[in-house]
Amino acid sequence: MSVIALTDSAGGASVDCIAELIWDTVNKNDWKIQKKQALNDKSLVVEIPIIRGAGSSLNVGILNSKSGSGKVGNPSIAAWVARSFLSGTVIAAEHVKQDGVDTVWFCAVRDGQVIAGTDITGDISEIDERVNEIFEMISTEDVGFMGSACGELTANQIGEVEAQPLLFNLSGSLKKKALVRGGSSGTTSQKTLVIIAVLCTILAIVGGSFLYISFSSSQNTAEEARKRKILQMQMAKTEYAALLVETAKKAQGGLLLQSLLRERVGKLEAKLGGWVLQTGACEAQKCTVGYLNTNLTDPAVLREGLEQNCDEVLVSMDGTQGSCMFGYGFGILDDENIKTPEFMEDADVNQFRLALMQYARYFEGSSYAISAASEVMFSKKNLLGSTNVFHTGSWALNVPLAQYPYAIDLLQNLNSISVDKVDLNWGGKNIEIKGLYFKEGIR
After folding, report:
1. Residue ranges of the alpha helices (H) in 286-434?
2. Among 45, 137, 51, 145, which Cα is nearest to 90's?
3. How distant, in Å, are the alpha carbons of 157, 205, 281, 327 from that of 201?
4. Half-sphere exposure of 146 toward its Cβ, with a 13 Å CA cutoff?
5. Are 69 and 2 in contact (CB under 8 A)?
6. Distance from the CA of 369 to the CA of which of 75, 180, 315, 427 falls in 20 to 30 A?
7. Cα 145 from Cα 123, distance rounded (Å)
């Protein structure tokens, strides 16, 4: 059965909709032939004009008469969603009744078009898997979630969008544009045209046709604007939630520095025959450590000495310079349960500054820098409502090579800083560490 029942937030009002149509984008000329055959077969069809790109195509849905039930006069739920949201990507997941059985309906809409392979029903695990598949195929930068089941989707990282019934977000005035047509709809269509013509004549006679059309148009425009705003707000919240997750991992820079210097760079040999370590640079999760061949030692000595600790060892054509390269990630910081960083407060920032000052004063040859925090750049801040976006400031610490273990001890317990760049100068006997600190937003 292909009829599902949508209910409002109170569980009262119910709307029967057609689901499980087969969706495709077809050429208008080809569709004329396919549509005629579908109507002759008493299948249900619905059409959505493409507003972006190819004007010679249509987004169409077909429900074969043998595939399920439904009748002319019911709206296609997927078409209704598509008509209500003409820009961006919408993932709709709704708890519904189908033949009196609880199930979940799902569809994905992109720029007012139903994505093929969606408009399906199943249990939440099946729907969740399908949503994840869709996410691998589309850009997820402007995705909005809606429907009573959206909070149960793993792809919905934010998990904070209020799971309201789908009816709350659909434009009632656009429901008519989502009605399906059936095999006998030709006659119905003619009757409808006659009725519309008579109504228009009557309205014209009483002088109210223009006002009626203008009011209806403005009402639709306002409704569409409201829906767009809701979608934009959901997209903004999703993007900000993703930024928080990424920041939460980066904000444990002290642990990352410990892992990087002690377990990776610290295990590299400073001298292998005539090969002498010179420099190291770690940034964007990739390290390159340079060696100089001081007495024309065989390059094989360098390769064999570094192969256990490097992803790749390269030697220049003349055999005088070599490089050890390896990638590094967040490692133990890749915890799916991490959602938000522990932001510093003003007192914490002052304490951090004091710690850097004391280190630089205690160890000769050390220096530090720290900037005032400013609001993180987030272009959609105005769509986050009362949310206070966090602040970031930069910091740096120049450390004598012999004293870097103390720098690790200083920073490893801080979980509100990132380590974005590490520069090693073996000849100058120093290490420079740069990163950001993360501070709570101003309330």
Report:
1. 299-306, 346-362, 404-411
2. 145
3. 53, 6, 79, 74
4. 27
5. yes
6. 427
7. 18
**Phi-psi map region of 308: left, alpha, beta (phi>0 left; psi -120 to 50 alpha):** alpha
- 275 contacts: CB under 8 Å, gap ≥ 6: 291, 292, 293, 294, 297, 301, 302, 305, 322
What is the rounded CA–CA span in Å between residue 48 and residue 82?
A: 8
401: how many CB neighbours lie within 10 A of its CB? 13
E-assigned strands of 128-251? Answer: 143-146
- Its pTM stands at 0.56
> What's the rounded Cα separation, in Å, for the pair 173 and 434?
56
Per the listing, tokens 């009573």 go with 148
Which stretches in the chain have pLDDT values below 70? 1, 9-13, 52-55, 65-72, 138-142, 157-163, 183-229, 330-340, 443
Burial letters 184-200, b for 16+ CB under 10 A, else e: ebeeeeeeeeeeeeeee
Report yes or no: 74 and 17 within 8 Å, Cβ to Cβ. yes
CA–CA gap between residue 406 and residue 411 (Å, rounded)? 9
Radius of gyration of the chain (CA): 31
pLDDT computed for residue 158 by the predictor: 57
